[in-house]
Amino acid sequence: MVDVGAKNPTRRVATAGADVVVSPETLRTVADGTAPKGDVLAAARIAGILGGKKTPDLIPLTHPLPLESLKVDLKIDEEIPGIRIEATASTTARTGVEMEALTAASIAALTVYDMLKSMEKGIRITNIRLIHKAGGKSGEYRNPE
Fold first, then answer.
1. The pTM of the whole model exceeds 0.70
2. Which of 49, 62, 104, 127 is within CB 3.0–4.6 Å of 19 for a Cys-Cys bond?
């Protein structure tokens, strides 16, 4: 792990995103709440939060952080067609929370896949990315997309 002991704790926030592309028919079952495994968005939201909290257990060399907040939002987007996921993590620490936000978005996307795979085999998880980060030595970053 990188030694962050000499750094001062600062407020750090990161937002990551992912998109899950499905057919319009599959998306309709999500919107209607009639998917065979149940409420897709609720299950994915909780899974994303749990995944983000487990980041140091999943990704080698990440620091365990005292997360102050971890929020996962999922929105149906008929233009994709699919589900847009945004995860925002925050802490006051010596290192950033980008990996926690990225892990939360990724786990939420994988959960959507798992919840819908019996209905559609061609589901695609795309555009996993850091959207925004603030705090720390490198300051603020905003994805230009």
1. yes
2. 127
